Amino acid sequence: MCGIIGYIGYRKASEVIFKGLRKLEYRGYDSAGIATVSGKGISAIKDIGRIDDIHAKRNFLQLEGSMGIGHTRWATHGGVTQKNAHPHTDSTGKIYLVHNGVIENFESLRTSLSRKGHKFVSETDTEVIAHLVEEECKSAPDFGKALSNAVAKLTGSWSLVCMHQGEEAIYLSRNGPPLILGIGKGEMFCASDVPALLDYTKRVIYIEDGDLVRFTRDSYSITNGGKKAERKVHTVAWTAKMAEKEGFAHFMLKEIHEQGGKIREALAADVSGAVALLRGQQNIAVVACGTSYYTGLVFKQLLQSRLSVNCDVIIGSEFSYARTGKEKVVVAISQSGETADTLSAVRLAKKSGAKTIGITNVTGSSLWRESDACVNIAAGPEIAVVATKSFTSQVAVLTKIALSLPGSSDNLATLSEASEAIEQILARSGEIEALAEKLVTHNDFFFIGRSLSFPSALEGALKLKEITYLHAEAYAAGELKHGPLSLLQKDVVVVALAPSDSSLPKIISNMSECRARDALLVAFSDSDEAIGKSALSFRMPSVQPLAIPIVYAVPLQLLAYYMAVKMKKDPDKPRNLAKSVTVE
Question: At the N or C end, where does the chain have fewer CB atoms within 10 A?
């Protein structure tokens, strides 16, 4: 989940790397560091905190040279300290590297290297790799072979970017977490995600597991298993402007406001490959994590209630325990296409003979390459750590797939009203902000929904807890009487999603149960009756049932956003979290 960047060319490396790290900070922001090579050798600056704060104290741009590497950290091994920040070096100070992933056998390697006289200054698994490469350099004919020998001894996951004094080249190794090579003119780049490179190039190569890469300012070579490997050069459709705030206070707010247009793009996606694999199947498994798991619940309800197709939705990290091994088709959902738990599930399913369908936002990602069929949700870069537009775009694509299967009697055109409804909600965002002002002093929140509004309730609770750090949880409204009602009392907030569909009479009854127990009832509804029962409310546009999961998510995203801002929390970078979860 860490952010990685490397550069060699004719520009000042520290400027390119610093700029790139700022665009990758959503992948981790415990600490950051940059190392560059100049005529004076290798120099490094690293510290704890946000990138801009470190720069204000230490000035990354004082680092000279036109080759370097950088890193922004999401801590795994070792606490958040300056010594644990990347880049890490060896005993000689001539080898520097940055790492994303987890080395599972680092303790045994550390013990072995310590016996050979290596001294370690950090608690990290990454520093062990630097010393292991140093040890391999003693017998290897060149640095590339030393790195290859070193990674052969690693167990776990890694994306490594490595350089050493005396050679104008950068080396890469990948086993799990994403790594991208950027091809320029007279300059070359690498990064863990595309936004870091968009100001300089749109021509990229997605490095694959087992690849060992060496690149200079004007050439690159890739080997895998000791043999030369050819990799396709992709042209990225995203623009640098798409990865900027464009006048919005935060990326989260910008991405919320993009959803009207993004729904239309998602509905134009080519789903023919996915539909072909699903046609005729009666038992389908979906694997996903977090927000993507909730979109899978929408897909499940559409398949089961409208097409009588059995669908099981399994959390990615639980797939190895819950699977039958007889799954014929597995639908994997991941915004980044690099979610480690979801990818592990896909690989396990494929070993059992299942066909796999990927639903992702990143063409060329691991999920894209490894799936038998893949659909791009076309949401564009999502920079805020929390998902917003990717949730609604995933729902739109999955709904299109469900309605494209034989037996569906629903008309996809009814979903087009979702874009207009979103625009109506966004035009009234001031009402949501006023609602946030009234709720910001409360500490406990329950979100309830039924039928197709239940996944949106789950997503609303997740958004609130992610960026405000308040207690929030969601329930299918009928479940309140099976335990959670005992927690309701004065000042506990119940957010009820009550669209005018077939579930309305029952959820109004559930709202009455909450009101009778003195909970503060907040309704998001187009029903006069539901609004009349609530202490606070936001009148929703009336939409067809298929549009409910999309439309009802948007005001909940805004509510979480405004509450976080009023609590002086950073909605783009919530504590302890990072984008693209590439560790299991």
Answer: C
Place of tokens 């000791």: 226
CA–CA separation, 99 vs 158, rounded Å? 6
Contact 77, 106 (CB under 8 A): yes
pTM: 0.81
Cβ atoms of 243 and 237 closer than 8 Å: no
* CA–CA dist 227, 215 (Å, integer): 16
242 neighbors 382 (Cβ within 8 angstroms): no
What single string gives the DSSP state of each residue in 311-361?
EEEEEGGGHHHH--S--SEEEEEESSS--HHHHHHHHHHHHTT-EEEEEES
Could you tell me the residue ranges of all domains in the chain? 3-242
Q: Which amino acid is at 441?
A: T
Buried b / exposed e along 414-441 (16+ C-beta atoms within 10 A): ebebbbebbeebbeebeebbebbeebee
In terms of Cβ atoms closer than 10 Å to its own Cβ (0-12, 13-18, 19+), residue 202 is middle
pLDDT tens for each residue of the chain, 584 residues long? 688 999 999 999 999 999 999 888 777 778 999 999 998 899 999 999 989 999 999 999 999 999 999 999 877 777 889 999 999 999 999 999 999 888 999 999 999 999 999 999 999 999 999 999 999 999 999 999 999 999 999 999 899 999 999 999 999 999 988 899 999 999 999 999 888 999 999 999 999 999 999 999 999 999 999 999 999 999 988 777 777 778 899 999 999 999 999 999 999 999 999 999 999 998 999 999 999 999 999 999 999 998 999 999 999 999 999 988 889 999 999 999 989 899 999 999 999 999 999 999 988 889 999 999 999 999 988 889 899 999 999 999 999 999 999 888 777 887 888 999 999 999 999 999 999 999 999 999 999 999 999 999 999 999 999 999 999 999 999 998 898 888 888 989 999 999 999 999 999 999 999 999 999 999 999 999 999 999 999 999 999 999 999 999 999 999 999 999 999 999 998 887 766 555 55
Phi and psi dihedrals of 45, rounded to 5?
A: -130, 130
CATH level 2 (architecture), domain 3-242: 4-Layer Sandwich (3.60)
- Say if CB 96 and CB 69 are below 8 A apart: yes
Burial 119-136 (b: 16+ CB within 10 A, else e): ebebebbbbbbbbbbbbb
How many angstroms separate the CA atoms of 35 and 441, rounded? Answer: 45
336 Cβ neighbours under 8 A, 6+ residues apart = 178, 193, 360, 361, 362, 365, 579, 580
Q: Which residues are catalytic?
A: 2, 579
483, 463, 451, 489: CA torsion to nearest 10? 30
* CA proximity to 99, closest of 40, 49, 27: 27
Which 3 state secondary structure label does DSSP give 67? strand
